[in-house]
Structures are given as C-alpha cells and as structure tokens.
C-alpha cells in the first residue's frame, strides 16, 4: 500500500564526461560532505560534497590510468583498488594519492568485483578464467568459466508431473503441446560477450554471467573460495545484466520469452524461481544493468532505447511486483552510470554523459485522501476505499489507467493530481471520473519536481528543486493553454525534504542541513516570506507534516498531507486551548514528541484524533497527546505497520507479506463513543457499543452529571422497539463501578469526572436505575415496559415488577405472558415463585408457577392449605416460609394473645428482640417477657451491662443486681440494692475486694467510706495498699489531732518509707540491666565491624543452621544457600500460633552466643526503655516524692528518689543514638542493586527487618 515519494532531487554539475563507475563512501553523519569517486576509461576523479550556490562540484584527479575495468574503495585500508585491462591491480592511498602495486595478471583482466565485506575479490580474466583472491591477494581458487559441475552436483530430473496435466493460465492448452527443450544458439559469437559479477550480501557466494560456448548466455555460482557450486538452469533468452539481491534469496536477470519480456528470479542453486513481466519489449528496450538497493527493497532497471534511456524502480508486495518510479533521460544528454547509496536508504546517484549529476532520495509513504488509498503500479493507479471495503493488495477496488508512467500523487479532497514520468500532470476528479491532462512549459519540462503539493485554492502547485546548496520552492499554476508554469519561486538555504500545507494557506517546509522548519505564508501576489517556525535538536531524516481538522473552528482546514512515516506536525484542539506539537521519527527508529523521547525501535506511526499511535516489532502503542502519557499497548503480528485510520475508529495495518489487517482499538473506539456522547447521540453510541462489545456502563460513566441532566433525551432516543432492547441491555449491565476510571481509564482522568449531588459510585445502580424508572413511569405509551421491569430487577424490586405484570394481566393476558417470559430471563423462576408468594396474591402465584418446573401436586395442596387460614395467620405462615421473619412477627402480633408463646419462640430463635420491642410497645406484659428473654441472650453473650438494664426493665432486680456486680458498676449496684431492699452495707462490703483486685483502690475507698460502718479512723489501709499516700495523708489530716498523728506516724510513714526503698531498688535494678544490655550490644557490634574489615562480608552470611530462626515476615536468607526456585519468605506460612510464639522466643533469646543476640538485646533494651520512661512510672515517682514532702521530714529521701530517676532518664536518652543506629531506623540504607550491590548493607537491613516495626515507630 505504500509508494516511493521523491523527497529530494539534487542537481549539480561535475564536469566529468563518459563516466563508467561511481564509488560512494557512506555518509554516516548525513552532512553532505561525503566524497564520491568517478571512474572513467582512463581516470579516477574525486568529488567532494555537493555543488556550491552555482551547482558546480569541486573535483580532483586521483589517478590517470589506461583501460580501467574496475575499481573499489577499501575502507579498512583507506585505499582505492583499481584493475586495468592489461592485468594490473593497483592500490591508491586516499590521503596521499600514492600508487602501489597489489597484484598482476599477465593475461589481462576483464572485470573485478570485491565481496561486500571486502575480504575476498573475484576477477574474470580475458581468457575466461575466474580467479578468487584474499584481500592480501593470495589466490584461493581459479577455474575456467566453462568448467562443468561434478556428476553428483548436476540437476536430476525424476519425472514428477507431466506438462500436459498442469495448469497454464492464460496460455491455454496449447502451452502443453509446446516443446520445453532448450535450443542452443547457432552462433554464440553473435551474442553480447559482456561478463558481469554480482556478490551476495553476506559475501559467501557470487554469480558470474557470461556466454558459454555450448549454451549461450548463462551464469555460474561460486563460493568465496572460488569453487564452482551451481550452474544455471538452461534457458533461452537470458540477457547479460545480473544482480544478486543483498538479502540473498534471488538472482535477478532479464529474460526474453516468445510473447513476453521478464526479469527472472533465480535461486542460489540456479533454478528459476519466478519472474515478473516487464511493460516493454527487451528486443527494443535493452536492460544494461540491474541494481538492488542496499536494503533489498527496490530493484532498479537501467534500460536503453533508440529514443531515450530510463530507470525503472520496482518493489514487491504480497508477491506482486509494483513499478513505482520511471526516470527518463534524453539521448541529447544520455545516462552514463547510476548507483545506489550504501549510507542512505533509497538514495540513487545518477551521472549523465555531460557530467551533470542527480541525487534522488525517496522514502516510503502512503498516499490517501478521504480514506482512499492510492497505490502506484506503472501506468495504473490502484484505488481502494478502506472505509467501505478492505481489498487485499495487489487487488484494488478500482483502477485508473493512464498512457504514461505515474511517478507521484498529490491529492486534494476531491482532486487527484498524477505526476508522470513525462512530467505531465493529470487531474482526476474522483466524483465525476473526469481526467484532464496538463503539459509543462519548456522550462518546467527540464526540471525534475520533488515534494509535489496540490493546493485546490486557485489550482496551484508547490514543488521543490534543489540546485547545489540551495532549494528553490516553486509555485506553479496552470495557464490558459493547459500548460503549467512557474509563477513564483523562493530560494532557501539547505535541502528541503518535506513540504506540506497548513492552516490559512501556510506551508511548512523542513531543511535537512540545520533541522529548521519554516512557515511560509503565500500572499495573493504570489510572494513568499519564510519565517522559522521551530528548530529541531537534530535534523529529521525523512519528514511529513499533518494538521488535523479543528472541529470547533470554521476556518480550519482538513489535512492535505498523506500518511507520514517520519514526522508530523499536529494541532490538538481541546475545549479551551490549542496545542501544537511536532512528532519526528529518525532513521535510528527513535520517536520524539517535540524534544521529549517517546520510544525507540519504532517502525511506523500515525496521529488519530487525540492519540499518537505507533508500532514496534510486535506491539502497538497509544500515547495521549493531551498529557503525553502512554495509555494502552496491545500485541500485533510481527512486522506489521500502520496504513490508515478511519472515522469509525478502524485502524488498518499491513503485514510484512503485504496483506491487510483491520482492527478496532479500544482507545479509538472510546474516543469516538465519547464524541457521540458529548453530542447527545445516544443511539449511535449504543450501536457502536453493541457492535464492538464495549461495556454500556460507559454511557453514564463518561459524564455522569451530563447523563443525568439529559435523561429525557436519552429516553426519547431509546423509545423505539429496537432501542428499548438496548435500554434493557444498558440497565442490566449497570454495576457499582466507575468504568471511566477502571476498565476504560486509558481515555479518562479522575480530575475530569463530575458527579451530581447525592451520587456515589457505591450507589450508582440504585441512583441511575431510580432516576430512569421514575422518568419511564412518567412517560406515556407502552415503549418502556421491558426497561421498567429491568430497572426493578436491578433495584431488587422484584415484587413491584410482578405486580406490574399482574396489572397488565387483568387487561391483556398475552402481553402479561410475554412480560413474564422476559422477567424469567433475568430472574430464576424458583426465586420469582417465592416473590410472588410474598405478594399474598394466589392468582399471581399460580401464574408464575405455571412457568416453573414445579409439580402441581406439590404446590396446589400447600396453597389450598394457606387459603383456609385466617388472613393474618396466613400471611405469617407465608412470611415464615419465605424466611421473612420481621414481617412474620408483625403479622403474628396481629393474631392475638393466643400466639404470644409462638411469637416469643420466634423472637428468641431469630434474634428479633429490637423489632419485637417495637411491635409490642403497647403490650406491657409481652414487653416484660421480651426484656427478660433479651437480657438472658445478652448475658449469654457476656454483655452484662446491657443485660442488667434489660433485667431491670423486665422487673427482675436481683438478676440486674447480679449482672451489675460483675461489671463493677458500684453506683448502679447500690441503686439496685436499694430498690431491691437488700442490705446496702453488705452489698458495698462485697464490692470492695473486687475493686481492689482491678487496681481501683480510690473507688474502693470511697465505697467503703460512704456505705460501710467505721469508727473514728476511715479505712486508710485501702489507700495505703494502693500506694495512694497523698490521698491517705489528706484523709488523715481531716481527723482529730491525736488520731491524725497516730495514723501518720504508725501507718502512713512506715509504709511510705518502705515503698520508697522498694522503688529505689527497682530503679537501680532497671539501670543495671539497661547498662548490661547496652554494653553487650556495643561489644557485639564492635566484633562484627572488626571481622568485616578482616574477612569481608562473606564471613557474616547466615549459617544454614540459623535459617530456621528467621521470622516468617523476613526476606533474609544467605546468598550461599539461595537458589532460583527458593522463595524469599513473603509467601503463605503454615506455622501455627503456638509454634510461632515458640519460634519468636527462640529468636529473641538473651543467651550469649545466640546468632541473633544483637536483635534480642535491642528488643530487651526497648522493653527497658519503655518501662523506665513510661508515663505511669513517671507519675508514680512524682506522687511518691510529693507525699514525702508532705511529711516535712523526708525531704532528703524525696530528693534522692528524684535524682536517681532523673539520672536514669538522662542515661537512657544519651544511649538512644548508639543503640538505634541509622541503619536500624532505615534512614541511611542506601545500598545499590544489581552488580554493584552492597551485600553488607543488605545483610544488616535483612537482620534488622526481624525487629517489630511497631517498636521502631515508638523509638522514632
């Protein structure tokens, strides 16, 4: 589907006449400074770069030698190898131009050819011998051209198949009667005696075309050691030219048949594989040479006739050979030599006899307009509208045939301009089918136009002509005599390789020498004023521009350019802003968006709507141009390339063998669907959703607020019977998910979503179905019966759906039957039977039961039994059967007092206490029974506080008192004891001990003081036992002086002093343990650091015996014992909780010598720090010191306690940094990954992972 587009035709003058060979050095930097060597019969001339402003190229004579038959540039030796007819092989240094002898053939040399890797050279001598030498001119082999193959190498015909039984196509049955025997020429001396050598691309074989004495023109295949491997199959009509395809599969050679002329393609073994027909007769138009491009894509045929000379460019696709270009040269200045460039793809150097040089540069492009793909094939233009039909090439939807060869196409929306090899232009109107021819004037007829662009406005043409270092931008127009001529020209410095029309008539051009893109607005007078539009960081090798249509603007224009492989300028229009960007694809397959790198190894790309789509070897990628984010990737067949995209989201790809594949990417589909939804075209959007199996949730999730605001329009478009089914599908597919941010997040962003008030994703089905059902119920007519039923099902309102069907049953039984059948598609019939039974309408139950598999002998007796019961009790039995116990209890309550026991059983069985209390709120007796039953249930579930309240409300005060005692709610206990008439003092005394056991000494003291009998002194011992010495001193101070003195001296002071001594001893023990653990930890770390310096990290790998000690959540393991199949410990563990605790105790053992002793010490230190600095400990020390000061005689003891605790706190604070080092806290873990990994840091990190994260967080 692609054509060769002429991007550059550079003209200059060399002044060299009668050239025979071109030697091209690869221009790897593409700076137009390459050196070209031209070989004539007796001279070798060097050309430097391209011509100046006048188009004249500087030249220098390298050597002057007679009878030159071949030359080659040896890049590794920086020398020029020249062979002469006299047999000399000379080497010329390219720096000094000094000549040295390489070898000599005394019988003379007829031709020479070096292998592509320049390791071997092949000669054909004038005595018809093939000589193969190394690059050092050591002979590898020598054979005469007429040498025969060995017997075991010759062809063997086993007689498979008969010619009479084979299909002969258009030749008919007469072809079977023709004699297939080879007829040797009568006199081989009459044939051209030219000898041609062609190497295969890998340098393993070469072929020699020559005239054999017994068979005439043929060729042999030799290996790179000079051994004859194969001889060509005997055929008549073979011509002299020969070219081996660099990829190695075919040897191309012209061949004349009785009724046709072809280029035959032979295999390596000499057998004819296939051929393609030529559009001319080889008898009148002889092929002088064949040239394959370096990438094996293009085959150039250099021909000669009595009137002119031509170059035909062929390429193959889907097993068909297309004629893409024809270059015509007059005999007034005939063609001397042509040569493909090895450094630049599809660049052909042509040198004429007069010395004028043309450098043609093509690139692949796809010509299309209005979804019509135009493929050039000689004089035919193959047209295929891929939007209507996908016709695989080489076939096409229709064919336009001219009487001249087509070289280029320039398309408008309706007009196609065909530029031919004769430099005429044909205008073809696709709508009317009219074809008009326009000839060039005398000046334009001598110019080869490149980058042809047709502008429909004013029937103007734009083209480029490169002369030397300048490129002329030509503006052409058709005159009155149907000739087109140049009406304006603008010279730009550099070489233009891209030309495209933009908005407002502007034209964008790109120059390869500096990477600039110029914007050129054309005035009405035809003058041009170029200005720099943007500057690329590097010049693009091949470019094209693309500007999409701005749908929101009337003056914007549709893209005039074709599909581009290399660079596009895109204009992106959003709601408020315009975004312009530049996409480039360089020869290194690097895709860039402006200066941002997108990806590499890119084979093709295209801009479709708001997305940049590009292919790699076997993947298709989508980039959102609005935020430049890659949103989707999908697999494609290996080597597929993009052809075009259609408005319906169709994307056409061409596979390597040439056939087409059409896909509908989800990203483009969602873009089209989103556009339709924005335009409130719900029916078209729904049609596309159904066709391409997109989830219908996107209709509302695209913009929930807009969808809810346009529900009336949505329903009006879905009113038709066909669309009502789509509405049912939409409702049935609704889910409580936001598909715009989930499944289809590639086309949406969370910030763009807007929701109506009261809407949430978790209630999406309820919200949308509720609105739709409400609107559909308000609509007149019967178009929404099925959607309403679907909405009821999604809302869980099956009863309402059945009642609606039952309503229609009363008026139209047939319609109700259809509605019920539809409902049965959505809901299981057994479930629907239960719902019908829950309506208490036995007619509806029978109506549904008829559609089920139930046996009438089973459900009819049951229904009759229900009919015989009273109404409320019948409803109770139905609800109980359907397990609707709330409703069943309501109906049972209406049946009277005789069913209270049954109701109480149901309440207990199904835990309906709250519902029952509401139902029986006016029945005091039943409420009391329910309260007691509820209290029993609460007490059984250990909810004693609530149970006490329920017992109280049920009148059982003793049970309420007992439950309150268990909760230690002593105030409620005293209250209940008073109401129950129990002894308050006795009840209070029984509560004191439990409160003390729960460390609630102050409450126990208050209870004992208020509700028990005591003499002169209150129960101060309770406060002393709880170490509440401050309160005890206060209570003692309220007594009489003698009692207060006695209490302080005999009870409070001794107890307080003893507690202070105990507290100081405890703090001393904590300090000793802390210091001991800290010192042990520092010693261990010191030993580890010393060992790491001496022996390296390997000595500290965890031993195999230690692995069992690792925590289940640790990812640590020794590198010595790890394998590729071993898990790192993050998977599921089957260790029981008991074994896990045992494992942790073993891991955190403080026993010296434990492999994880440092981890255990850190854990123990954490426990010590937590205990010492705990708020409760601080409060205890503070209250104790305060009590000592209140005694007025223990100030020193209080100061000592305070100083001891303060020193301990300071010790702990000063030790924190040396215990919890940065690696432990995770702040300095900066080890590398990959080959430069820090194994010691990794090991430490793995060891510290065994410490609880909660404990580390406390330290932080």
Automatic annotation (TrEMBL):
Q: Zinc as a keyword?
A: no
Give the compositionally biased regions (Basic residues): 1135-1145
Q: Low complexity bias located where?
A: 1114-1134
Q: Provide the ELP1 alpha-solenoid domain boundaries.
A: 666-866
Report the SUPFAM superfamilies cross-referenced here.
Answer: Putative isomerase YbhE, Tricorn protease domain 2
Q: Which residues form the ELP1 three-helical bundle domain?
A: 1046-1217
**Where would one find coiled-coil regions in this protein?**
none
GO CC annotation terms, alphabetical: cytosol; elongator holoenzyme complex; nucleus
Stretches the record annotates as Disordered: 1114-1147
- Indicate yes or no for the key word Nucleus: yes
Question: Where in the numbering of this chain does the ELP1 TPR domain appear?
Answer: 873-1013
Q: What's a GO biological-process term for it? A: tRNA wobble base 5-methoxycarbonylmethyl-2-thiouridinylation
Signal peptide start-end = none
Pathway info? tRNA modification; 5-methoxycarbonylmethyl-2-thiouridine-tRNA biosynthesis
Main location class: cytoplasm
**Which terms does the record give in the GO molecular function aspect?**
tRNA binding
Going by the UniProt record, its keywords in alphabetical order are: Cytoplasm, Nucleus, tRNA processing
Domain spans labelled ELP1 first N-terminal beta-propeller:
1-341
State the Pfam families in the record. A-sol_ELP1 (PF23925), Beta-prop_ELP1_1st (PF04762), Beta-prop_ELP1_2nd (PF23797), HB_ELP1 (PF23936), TPR_ELP1 (PF23878)
Where can this protein be found?
Cytoplasm; Nucleus
* Positions of the ELP1 N-terminal second beta-propeller domain: 375-643
Name the job this protein performs: Component of the elongator complex which is required for multiple tRNA modifications, including mcm5U (5-methoxycarbonylmethyl uridine), mcm5s2U (5-methoxycarbonylmethyl-2-thiouridine), and ncm5U (5-carbamoylmethyl uridine). The elongator complex catalyzes formation of carboxymethyluridine in the wobble base at position 34 in tRNAs.
For this entry, the protein name equals: Elongator complex protein 1
């Amino acid at each position: 589907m692609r054509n060769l587009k002429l991007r550059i035709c550079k003209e200059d003058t060399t002044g060299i006449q009668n050239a025979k060979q071109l030697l091209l050095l690869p221009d790897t930097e593409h700076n137009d400074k390459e050196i070209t060597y031209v070989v004539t019969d007796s001279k070798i001339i060097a050309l430097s770069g391209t011509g100046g402003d006048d188009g004249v190229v500087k030249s220098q004579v390298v050597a002057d030698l007679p009878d030159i038959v071949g030359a080659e540039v040896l890049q590794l030796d920086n020398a020029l190898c020249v062979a002469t007819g006299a047999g000399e092989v000379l080497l010329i240094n390219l720096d000094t131009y000094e000549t040295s002898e390489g070898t000599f053939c005394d019988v003379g040399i007829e031709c020479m050819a070096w292998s592509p890797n320049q390791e071997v050279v092949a000669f054909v001598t004038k005595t018809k011998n093939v000589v193969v030498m190394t690059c050092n001119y050591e002979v590898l082999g020598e054979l005469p051209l007429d040498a025969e193959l060995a017997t075991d190498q010759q062809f063997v015909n086993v007689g498979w198949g008969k010619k009479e039984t084979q299909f002969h196509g258009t030749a008919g049955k007469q072809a079977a009667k023709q004699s297939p025997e080879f007829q040797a020429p009568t006199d081989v001396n009459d044939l051209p005696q030219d000898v041609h050598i062609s190497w295969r691309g890998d340098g393993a074989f070469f072929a020699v075309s020559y005239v054999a004495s017994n068979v005439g023109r043929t060729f042999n295949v030799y290996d790179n050691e000079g051994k004859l491997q194969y001889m060509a199959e005997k055929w008549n009509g073979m011509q002299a030219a020969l070219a081996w395809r660099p990829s190695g599969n075919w040897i191309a050679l012209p061949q004349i048949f009785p009724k046709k002329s072809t280029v035959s393609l032979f295999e390596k073994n000499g057998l004819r594989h296939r051929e393609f027909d030529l559009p001319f007769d080889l008898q009148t138009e002889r092929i002088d040479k064949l040239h394959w491009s370096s990438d094996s894509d293009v085959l150039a045929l250099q021909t000669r006739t009595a009137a002119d000379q031509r170059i035909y460019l062929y390429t193959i696709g889907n097993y068909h050979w297309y004629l893409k270009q024809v270059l015509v040269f007059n005999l007034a200045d005939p063609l001397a030599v042509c040569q493909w460039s090895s450094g630049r793809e599809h660049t052909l150097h042509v040198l004429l006899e007069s010395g004028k040089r043309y450098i043609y540069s093509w690139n692949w492009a796809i010509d299309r307009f209005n979804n019509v793909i135009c493929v050039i094939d000689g004089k035919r233009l193959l047209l295929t509208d891929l939007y209507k039909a996908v016709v695989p090439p080489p076939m096409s939807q229709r064919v336009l045939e001219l009487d001249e060869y087509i070289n280029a196409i320039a398309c408008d929306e309706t007009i196609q301009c065909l530029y031919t090899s004769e430099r005429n232009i044909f205008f073809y109107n696709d709508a009317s089918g009219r074809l008009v021819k326009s000839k060039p004037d005398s000046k334009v007829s001598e110019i080869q136009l490149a980058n042809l662009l047709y502008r429909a406005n004013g029937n103007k043409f734009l083209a480029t002509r490169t002369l030397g270092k300048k490129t002329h931008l030509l503006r052409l127009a058709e005159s009155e005599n149907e000739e087109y001529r140049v009406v304006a020209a603008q010279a730009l410095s550099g070489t233009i390789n891209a030309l495209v029309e933009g908005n407002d008539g502007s034209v964008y051009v790109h120059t390869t020498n500096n990477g600039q893109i110029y914007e050129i607005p054309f005035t009405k007078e035809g003058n041009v004023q170029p200005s720099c539009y943007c500057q690329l960081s590097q010049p693009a090798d091949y470019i094209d521009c693309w500007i999409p249509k701005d749908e929101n603007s009337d003056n914007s224009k549709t893209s005039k350019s074709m599909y581009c492989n290399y660079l596009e300028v895109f204009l992106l229009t959003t709601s408020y802003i315009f975004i312009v960007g530049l996409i480039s694809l360089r020869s290194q397959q690097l895709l860039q968006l402006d200066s941002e790198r997108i990806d590499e190894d890119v084979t093709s790309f295209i801009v479709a709507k708001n997305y940049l789509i590009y292919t790699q070897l076997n993947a298709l990628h989508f980039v959102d141009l609005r935020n430049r984010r890659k949103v989707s990737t999908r697999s494609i067949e290996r080597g597929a390339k993009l052809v075009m995209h259609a408005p319906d989201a169709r994307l056409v790809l061409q596979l390597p063998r040439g056939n087409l594949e059409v896909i509908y990417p989800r990203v483009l589909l969602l873009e089209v669907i989103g556009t339709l939804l924005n335009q409130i075209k719900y029916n078209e959007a729904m049609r596309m959703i159904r066709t391409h199996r997109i989830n219908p949730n996107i209709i509302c999730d695209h913009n929930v607020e807009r969808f809810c605001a346009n529900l009336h329009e949505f329903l009006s478009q879905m009113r038709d019977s066909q669309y009502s089914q789509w509405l049912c599908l939409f409702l049935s597919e609704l889910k409580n998910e936001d598909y715009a941010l989930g499944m289809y997040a590639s086309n949406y962003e969370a910030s763009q979503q807007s929701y109506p008030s009261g809407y949430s994703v978790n209630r999406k089905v309820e919200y949308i179905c509720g609105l739709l059902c409400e609107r559909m119920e308000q609509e007149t007519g019967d178009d929404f019966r099925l959607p309403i039923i679907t909405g009821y099902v999604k809302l869980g309102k099956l009863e309402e759906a059945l009642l609606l069907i039952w309503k229609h049953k009363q008026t139209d039984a047939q319609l109700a039957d259809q509605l019920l059948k539809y409902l049965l598609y959505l809901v299981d019939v057994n479930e629907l039977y239960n719902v019908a039974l829950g309506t208490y309408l036995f007619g509806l139950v029978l109506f549904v039961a008829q559609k089920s598999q139930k046996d009438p002998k089973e459900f009819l007796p049951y229904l009759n039994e229900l009919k015989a019961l009273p109404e409320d009790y019948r409803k109770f039995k139905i609800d109980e059967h359907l397990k609707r116990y709330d409703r069943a209890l309501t109906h049972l309550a209406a049946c009277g007092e005789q069913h209270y026991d049954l109701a109480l059983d149901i309440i207990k069985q199904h835990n309906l206490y709250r519902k029952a209390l509401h139902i029986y709120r006016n029945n005091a007796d039943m409420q009391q029974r329910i309260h007691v039953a509820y209290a029993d249930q609460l007490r059984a579930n250990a909810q004693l506080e609530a149970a006490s309240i329920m017992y109280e409300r049920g009148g059982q005060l003793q049970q309420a008192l007992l439950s309150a005692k268990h909760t230690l709610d002593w105030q409620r206990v005293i209250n209940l004891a008073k109401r129950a008439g129990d002894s308050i003092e006795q009840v209070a005394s029984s509560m004191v001990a439990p409160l003390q056991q729960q460390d609630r000494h102050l409450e126990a003291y208050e209870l004992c003081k208020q509700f028990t009998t005591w003499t002169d002194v209150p129960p101060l011992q309770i406060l002393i036992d709880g170490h509440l010495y401050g309160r005890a001193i206060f209570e003692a101070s309220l007594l009489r002086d003698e009692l207060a003195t006695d209490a302080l001296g005999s009870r409070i002071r001794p107890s307080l002093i003893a507690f202070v001594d105990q507290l100081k001893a405890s703090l001393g023990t904590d300090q000793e343990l802390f210091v001991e653990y800290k010192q042990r930890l520092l010693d261990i770390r010191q030993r580890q650091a010393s060992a790491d310096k001496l022996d390296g990290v390997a000595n500290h790998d965890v031993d195999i015996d230690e692995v069992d000690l690792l925590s289940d959540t640790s990812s640590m393991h020794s590198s010595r014992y790890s394998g590729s199949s071993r898990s790192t410990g993050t998977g599921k563990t089957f260790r029981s909780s008991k074994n896990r605790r045992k494992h942790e105790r073993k891991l955190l053992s403080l026993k010296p010598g434990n492999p994880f002793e440092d981890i255990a010490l850190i854990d123990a230190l954490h426990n010590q720090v937590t205990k010492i600095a705990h708020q409760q400990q601080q409060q205890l020390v503070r209250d104790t010191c305060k009590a000592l000061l209140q005694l007025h005689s223990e100030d020193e003891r209080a100061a000592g306690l305070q100083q001891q605790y303060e020193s301990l706190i300071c010790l702990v604070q000063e030790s924190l940094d040396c215990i919890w080092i940065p690696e432990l806290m995770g702040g300095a873990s900066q080890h590398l990954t990959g080959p430069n990994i820090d194994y010691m840091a990794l090991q430490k990190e793995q060891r510290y992972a065994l410490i609880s994260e909660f404990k580390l967080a406390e330290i932080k």
